[in-house]
C-alpha cells in the first residue's frame, strides 16, 4: 500500500483532502485532515502462493520377464519358435533372441507379441509428480482499496 499522492510507502493515514478521502503518507497528510491512521495489517499485498498440482505420468516399460513369458506362452500354444515367427511375420532368430533375453523388444514389438500370445509384455508405471506452480495473485489496483468519498 502506498500513498495515493506521492506513492511513498510506510506509515499511511486515511486523510480527508479537498473533499476526498485518500490514503496518504505522513507528509501528504499535511495537505488535509487526518481521519485515522491506516493499520499496516490491513495492507493488501501482492501475494504469490504456491499451488501444488499432481500430475500423473505413466511410463511403459517392457516386462522384466519378457523372455520367459514369451517362451511359456509360445509353448502353451504348441508353437515352435519358427512357427511363432511366421505368425508374427518376424524372423525366427528374433524369437530366439527374445526368449534368450538377448534382445529386448521395442514397445511396438512387445505389444504385438503380447496381443498375439495373450500375455502382458508391458508394465505401466505411474509416476506422480508434484509440480510446484507459483501463481501470482492478481495484482490489485488502487481502486480496490481506495475508497474516495466525495462529500456532499
Ligand atoms: Zn505522500
Secondary-structure map with pairings?
Blueprint: E1 12-17, E2 20-25, H1 26-29, E3 33-37, E4 48-62, H2 66-76, H3 81-88, H4 92-99, H5 107-117, E5 122-136, H6 142-145
Antiparallel strand pairs: 1-2, 1-3, 4-5
Helix pairs in contact: 2-5, 3-4
Residues 3, 5-6, 8, 24-25, 27-28 line the site of zinc ion.
Structural account:
The chain is α+β, with helices and mostly antiparallel strands and 152 residues long. It folds into two domains: 1-43, no CATH class; 56-129, lambda repressor-like DNA-binding domains (434 Repressor (Amino-terminal Domain)). It has six helices and five strands, in the order E-E-H-E-E-H-H-H-H-E-H. It has a three-stranded antiparallel sheet. A two-stranded antiparallel sheet has the order 4-5. The protein is rod-shaped. Bound molecules: zinc ion. Zinc ion (ZN) binds next to strand 2 and helix 1. Zinc ion binds next to strand 2 and helix 1.
Reading the helices and strands in chain order gives: EEHEEHHHHEH
Helix fraction, binned, reads 25-40%
Relevant CATH superfamily of the largest domain? lambda repressor-like DNA-binding domains
DSSP summary, beta strand count = 5
Outline the biggest β-sheet: 3 strands, antiparallel
Read across the widest sheet, the strand sequence of neighbours is 2-1-3
The CATH architecture term of the largest domain is Orthogonal Bundle
From the N-terminal CA to the C-terminal CA, the straight-line distance is 27 Å
**Distinct bound molecules:** zinc ion
Mean pLDDT, all residues: 81
* CATH C-level of the largest domain: Mainly Alpha
Structural class comes to: alpha+beta
Strand content: 25-35%
Amino acid at each position: 500500500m502506498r500513498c495515493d499522492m506521492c506513492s511513498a510507502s510506510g506509515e499511511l493515514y486515511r486523510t480527508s483532502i479537498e473533499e476526498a478521502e485518500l490514503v496518504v503518507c505522513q507528509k501528504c497528510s499535511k495537505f488535509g485532515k487526518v481521519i485515522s491512521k491506516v493499520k499496516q495489517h490491513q495492507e493488501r499485498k501482492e501475494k504469490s502462493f504456491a499451488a501444488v498440482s499432481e500430475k500423473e505420468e505413466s511410463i511403459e516399460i517392457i516386462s522384466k520377464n519378457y523372455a520367459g513369458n514369451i517362451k511359456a506362452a509360445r509353448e502353451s500354444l504348441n508353437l515352435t519358435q519358427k512357427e511363432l515367427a511366421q505368425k508374427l511375420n518376424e524372423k525366427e532368430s528374433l524369437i530366439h533372441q527374445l526368449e534368450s533375453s538377448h534382445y529386448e523388444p521395442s514397445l511396438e514389438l512387445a505389444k504385438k507379441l503380447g496381443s498375439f500370445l495373450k500375455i502382458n509384455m508391458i508394465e505401466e508405471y505411474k509416476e506422480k509428480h508434484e509440480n510446484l506452480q507459483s501463481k501470482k495473485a492478481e495484482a490489485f489496483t488502487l481502486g480496490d482499496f481506495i475508497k474516495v468519498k466525495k462529500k456532499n
